[in-house]
Specification:
Radius of gyration: 23 Å
Structural class: alpha+beta
Mean pLDDT: 90
Largest sheet: 7 strands, mixed
CATH architecture of the largest domain: 3-Layer(aba) Sandwich
Shape: globular
Strand content: 5-15%
Helix content: 40-55%
């Protein structure tokens, strides 16, 4: 193990032990460990890694953990981990035999870590069975199905959105941008670089957000990473067309230069773009509820929520090679590791998906759509509860107050139909490798820089992902 990696692990552990331990005295009987003792009596302390590392989210997480400790007597040590470093840190932790007991992590890693023996898919199944599989959204649950269990327990997620300036579309007589053709028509009609206004803004840097953005575009045109046999299909005509479409939008109707999570949002918030592809984490900010990501459009001075009131939302759209609208979906899971204190971890997750669940969704409701809809007795308990949650950082408001019930219902209704590359074809481990190596954004970047044609980029993606598949 590299010394620098080991130091990172030590630093994380020290940070967690000094600042982020949630504990309290026992207040209720804890779960049996199978050895005739309660989990707490047998040293039932849980180490919990979470990618929700922003300070305000850490504070809210600690509150949930404290309540669990009060009810169970089981202490929980929280270690916030930056999502960009998660894979490297977990690999080093596995090598050092210092895995956490429970992790909150993105879907992209689920099957790969189960294949590597890091996740206990049997324990996850026992949790899901105890909660009732029928209470979870079917699509996400199917994506993490692994052997005779589940790689983890779906927790919460979001679906990618194409957001557009409805006021400008209406004034120009443009149709809702729900197809490649309508998106390009609108981008061309609204694009006016001489006045510093652009048809669309979307990520193009070599990063995960660009991977997610393009995957959304690709799925809409039935461009798949693999076929049902597991063969890579990124050089297909559907994928070449998706690359061409993406390249056309970025080259001809977008702000020049590298665009990422922050710059695309800033462009739309400044009133300088007609469309943006972004996650619903933008929703509270677009309402003017977060000071460090505040709308700055000319109209926003009088009404910070102007963009929220004058934007339309397209979760799904189609390309010319597909008649099925598609939406990229991302969700996170709670996973129990292979070295966990299993009984204490299971008790923790059963609390998490019941008493603690709405409090967890409240950490960031705009991007935490519930993957568990309710309980057997109250089938829509958590969906109904989620709709009533307030969002925001510096100010609080229900999303429905900014967007209306129709928009909120559209967001939640799409959860079961979330689409992704590779999972339906049983290639979840390959998805993990692709998200770590990022060959797709790299090839797209080379295309935007003029180094590759769309056809050459498709062949480059094909070769790189085939190489990743062969190395597994």
């Amino acid at each position: 193990m590299k010394r620098s990696t080991l130091l990172m692990i030590v630093a994380l552990a020290l940070f967690a032990s000094l600042a982020l331990t949630a504990c309290a005295a026992p207040a209720a009987p804890a779960a049996e460990t199978g050895r005739g003792e309660t989990a707490a009596e047998s040293g039932g302390k849980i180490l919990f890694w979470s990618t929700e590392s922003q300070p305000e989210r850490v504070t809210k997480t600690q509150e949930i953990l404290k309540r669990f400790t009060e009810q169970s007597g089981i202490e929980v040590e929280l270690v916030p981990v930056d999502e960009g470093q998660l894979s490297q840190l977990l690999t080093a932790s596995a090598a050092a035999n210092t895995l956490p007991d429970v992790m909150f992590f993105p879907l992209d890693y689920a099957i790969g870590w189960a294949d590597q023996g890091i996740l206990d898919y049997t324990a996850a199944k026992e949790v899901i069975d105890s909660l009732d599989p029928a209470t979870f959204s079917e699509g996400p649950l199917n994506m993490v199905s692994y052997k005779d269990g589940y790689a983890g327990v779906p927790s919460d997620g979001w679906g990618q959105l194409l957001i557009y300036r409805k006021d400008l579309f209406d004034a120009a007589g443009l149709e809702t941008p729900d197809t490649y053709e309508k998106i390009k028509t609108a981008a061309e009609a609204l694009n006016d670089p001489s006045n510093n206004f652009f048809g669309i803004t979307a990520a193009n840097d070599v990063a995960v957000f660009t991977q997610q953005t393009f995957e959304h575009i690709a799925l809409a045109n039935n461009c798949q990473m693999v076929d049902d046999s597991g063969a890579i299909t990124l050089d297909s005509p559907e994928c070449v067309e998706a690359i061409s479409f993406y390249n056309d939008l970025e080259t001809n109707y977008s702000l020049a230069g590298q665009q990422d999570v922050a710059s695309t949002r800033a462009t739309y918030f400044a009133g300088l773009a007609g469309m943006i592809i972004w996650s619903p984490f933008i929703l509270d900010e677009m309402c003017g509820l977060r000071d460090n990501a505040f709308p700055t459009c000319p109209e926003c001075g009088d009404d910070p929520a102007y963009l929220a009131k004058n934007s339309g939302f397209v979760p799904k759209f189609t390309g010319p090679n597909s008649d099925k609208p598609a939406q990229y979906g991302q969700f996170s899971l709670m996973g129990i590791t292979a070295t966990a204190n299993t009984e204490a971890a299971k008790q923790f997750l059963e609390f998490w998906y019941n008493d603690g669940y709405l409090d967890w969704l409240a950490v960031s409701p705009e991007g935490k759509l519930p993957m568990r809809n309710g309980t057997p007795d109250e089938p829509t308990k958590f969906v109904d509860g989620w709709k009533e949650l307030e969002t925001g950082v510096d100010r609080k408001e229900k999303l429905s107050a900014c967007y209306g019930d129709d928009v909120i219902n559209t967001l939640i209704e799409g959860v079961s139909a979330f689409d992704r590359w590779g999972f339906a074809q049983g290639q979840g481990a390959l998805v993990q490798a692709v998200y770590q190596a990022l060959p797709i954004p790299q090839a797209l970047n080379d295309t935007l820089n003029g180094g590759l044609t769309p056809e050459e980029a498709a062949k480059e993606m094909q070769a790189e992902v085939e190489s990743l598949q062969a190395s597994q």
